[in-house]
Design goal:
InterPro entries: AAA+_ATPase, ABC_transporter-like_ATP-bd, ABC_transpr_FbpC, ABC_transpr_MalK/UgpC-like, Mo/tungstate-bd_C_term_dom, NA-bd_OB-fold, P-loop_NTPase, Transp-assoc_OB_typ2. Keywords: ATP-binding, Cell membrane, Membrane, Nucleotide-binding, Transport. This protein is of the alpha+beta class and 363 residues long. The protein has two domains: 4-230, P-loop containing nucleotide triphosphate hydrolases (Rossmann fold), CATH 3.40.50.300; 243-352, OB fold (Dihydrolipoamide Acetyltransferase, E2P). It has helices at 48-56, 98-107, 113-127, 142-154, 173-190, 201-207, 225-230, 235-240, and strands at residues 4-11, 25-32, 37-41, 63-68, 71-72, 83-86, 161-165, 194-198, 210-215, 218-223, 247-250, 252-254, 257-260, 263-265, 279-283, 288-291, 295-304, 309-315, 318-324, 334-339, 345-348, 351-352. A hairpin with a 4-residue loop joins strand 17 (295-304) and strand 18 (309-315). Bound molecules: adenosine-5'-triphosphate. Adenosine-5'-triphosphate is lined by residues 13, 24, 42, 44-50, 199. Adenosine-5'-triphosphate binds at residues 13, 24, 42, 44-50, 199.
Amino acid sequence: MAKITLKNLRHSYYPNPKGPDDFALKEVDLDWQDGGAYALLGPSGCGKSTLLNIISGLLEPSEGQILFDGQDVTKLPPDQRDIAQVFQFPVIYDTMTVRQNLAFPLKNRGVDPATIEKRVAEIAEMLEVTDILDRKAAGLSPDNKQKISMGRGLVRDDVNVVMFDEPLTVIDPHLKWKLRTKLKELHQRVSHTMIYVTHDQTEALTFADQVVVMQDGEVVQIGTPEELFERPAHTFVGHFIGSPGMNVLPATIKDGQALFNGTAVALEGPIHPGTKGTLEIGIRPEFVSLGDTGIAGTVSRVSDVGRHAVVQVTIADTKISAVVNGTPPATGDTVHLQLTAAQTRLYADGWIASTPAQKESAA
Ligand SMILES: Nc1ncnc2c1ncn2[C@@H]1O[C@H](COP(=O)(O)OP(=O)(O)OP(=O)(O)O)[C@@H](O)[C@H]1O
């Protein structure tokens, strides 16, 4: 296993890139610790596959370096990087049995038969496929095939990193949650460095200790699932993570106070000095409540999502969602919104521009 360092990486698919827009990866600087579980999360086209292909060696970056445990591997071909990859679609040999498929990466490297047998049995047990070890892969269901594909990625214990590229794409929705949890468990047991690429926030947040969120070829935030939820560093993260995502309200500043629609809104703490640009207030629907006083608006939609309702309130042209427990108001009602100050943040040109208030030290 290895620590992976990406240093000043940039990549353009054009021979003579002119400006930042010509770069599929704009600038990536990352340290992935040995044994960590990481997710690379972002919408289609944000550069996830480009980054993955650079790490695996299928693509040479236009600029920058990739280091495994401090050693520069930027120019090494894929087969010399000791990487295991699990793709969207199963990569297994149909004519072989499950056991032979799982053993293949080890046999290929001349591992002795006793070690192969032991390791295959361990992986099969972890993936709960021991009972089908002697079945031909051809007859397996798509999700069992993908499980075997994962097993082949995990069977070697001498790889630098295991990379999963949207591995649950072919899995039936009702089995997805099971495999998601299983993968997390597997990471804890095998403790390889793992990178999981996905556009699905649930998959990323379930699997990873640290999630790297990408947008337009840039890393916008790296954090634990809690950090990304609690304090998005960028409005994109707030919007992309959470269901529904963070409310983003147009704002202005007057006398050091943030205003929405002419009304002062209390923030988590002070605004960064010199803040300018396009200003927005961000607050998650979970921290917006309905009360007798507060910002008045009209209920424009009520969605019942089981244990709570999501009430959408329109104020001027802005729609704000609130998560409401108990009986929700009806569409057309006038309501008053209260925003939890400690969870209300200011953003300038998308980036966070308020600081949490200092906690008072215990007397
Ligand atoms: N071979 C290529 N030639 C030119 N442009 C490419 C090539 N591959 C990707 N791109 C462009 O680079 C950008 C990043 O693409 P990339 O495939 O890395 O994103 P992604 O996040 O993996 O998306 P997806 O989830 O759809 O695969 C996109 O604008 C894409 O159009």
